[in-house]
Amino acid sequence: MIQAHAFDNDLKIPLIIKANEDLLVNFRLGDIQHFAEDQGIYLHDKVNAIYIDLRDINYDLILEGGDYDNRFEITFNNQDTLEDEEALLKDLRIFQDNAQHQFTILNPTALPVSQVKIFDMSGKLILDQIGLNTQDEYHFSTTGMSDGVYMALIDLKNAGSINKKIIIKN
To answer: Which of 79, 81, 106, 110 qualifies as a cystine partner to 85, CB 3.0-4.6 A?
Structure first.
């Protein structure tokens, strides 16, 4: 399907799913040809407002029966992150502390974190902390979460957001 389009980093390819009943959907990459190894390939889930880097992880979720004409698209850049996300990541240290059962954000330069969300790989919102005050550290308990891969979304006031894959092993 992608070969039918001239490649452009801003290209968005809509994915349409029609399900007669509840359906387990598995998004994963198969054979990748004619792409640079560092070229991102993202699934944009518009409902959950997340971008999944399909080169790093698969995305599985259960959809209720129905038509999903405008929920998913394949993109080649993560529009939800800042142009200089690498610079921000130097200022924010984001990690899962499995020994303490905590998701931790170290913020020594006091970036204005406004919201933190954690999604499981089915797209289910597991944690949603809003109205956060600017702090140099944030800690969120992961005690009740199952072992697995999760996607964290950190929103910065008026500065975009950062997606980070975390692995929880409680």
So the answer is: 81
Whether 67 maps to a domain, the answer reads: yes
Domain of residue 48: give its range. Answer: 2-75
What's the confidence (pLDDT) of residue 82?
A: 42
- Give the pairing type, strands 148-156 and 137-141: unpaired
Count of Cβ atoms closer than 10 Å to residue 6 Cβ: 6
Three-state secondary structure call for residue 91 = helix
Structure tokens at 149: 């891969």
Number of domains in the chain: 2
What are the C-alpha distances in Å from 163 to residues 6, 69, 151?
A: 28, 24, 7
Residue closest to 17 by CA, chosen among 50, 55, 62, 49: 62
Give CA–CA dist 95/28, Å, rounded.
25
**Do β-strands 137-141 and 125-130 pair in parallel, antiparallel, or remain unpaired?**
unpaired
Per-residue pLDDT tens over the stretch 72-84:
999 988 765 544 4
CA terminus-to-terminus distance, the chain: 40
The amino acid sitting at 157 is K
Same domain, 69 and 114: no
Asked, for residue 80, whether it belongs to a domain, the answer is no
